[in-house]
Amino acid sequence: MTGLRAWLGRVEPDFFSLAGRAKQIVEWHRDHRHCGRCGADNQDHPTDRAKLCPSCGLTTYPRLSPSIIVLVRRGEQMLLARNAAWPTSMFSTLAGFVEPGESIEQTVHREVGEEVGLAVGNLRYMGSQSWPFPNSLMLGFHADYRAGEIVCQDGEIAEARWFHFSQLPNVPGGTAISRWLIDAFVAEMSRQDARNA
Q1: CA distances for 38 relative to 41, 49, 175, angstroms
Q2: Which of 83, 122, 123, 145 has its CA 20 to 30 A from that of 188?
Q3: DSSP secondary-structure letter at 92?
Q4: How far apart are alpha carbons 76 and 165 in whole angstroms?
Q5: CA dist 7 to 35, 84, 95, 180, Å?
């Protein structure tokens, strides 16, 4: 179970998704043996995938942490960033967790502003992916650059730059939603180039 990240890009997406689901359920089962309200031993719910506390009646379902991932576009360029904890050659899209009380759209605006200091608009939902590290649901967007200069968030973003769609750096493999967002932009720009040729 601990080696799931090493499978990224090395197994079929359907298999990775199934393995990720199994990992999340096993970890949820392990981490919710006791009631979070009163501390009593939980029991398996008789009909749902849930834990039921026989003492106080609290029902606990597997937890998902919604997060956004966004490709910021500016003409034929895309903004890619390198996380401070990543190898120096790996760039990807921006991502972050939804805060309590936020809409998904508010999260996109806040995360882009926090991580790179830019304002964006024209958000387009592109798809989602279960991301079992440990229990996220990634909601993917394209967004258009509106204003600002790149200012990387200390401790979070080591580097962020604009890349032309035809000159990509080292990016995540095809299993990751960040790559789907990048590939969708490259395909769209390539079609436009072909029409204009």
Answers
A1: 9, 20, 40
A2: 83
A3: B
A4: 6
A5: 33, 22, 21, 17
Q: Quickly count: other Cβ atoms within 10 Å of residue 29's Cβ.
A: 14
Tens digit of each residue's pLDDT (9 = 90 or more) over 33-54: 999 999 999 999 999 999 999 9
DSSP-derived 3-state class of residue 194: helix
Picking from 4, 7, 2, 62, the residue whose alpha carbon sits closest to that of residue 173 is 7
Q: DSSP state, 169?
A: -
**pTM of the complete model:** 0.87
Distance CA 161, CA 93 (A): 11
What confidence category does residue 78 fall into, taking pLDDT thresholds of 50, 70 and 90?
A: very high
Burial class (CB in 10 A: 0-12, 13-18, 19+), 35: buried
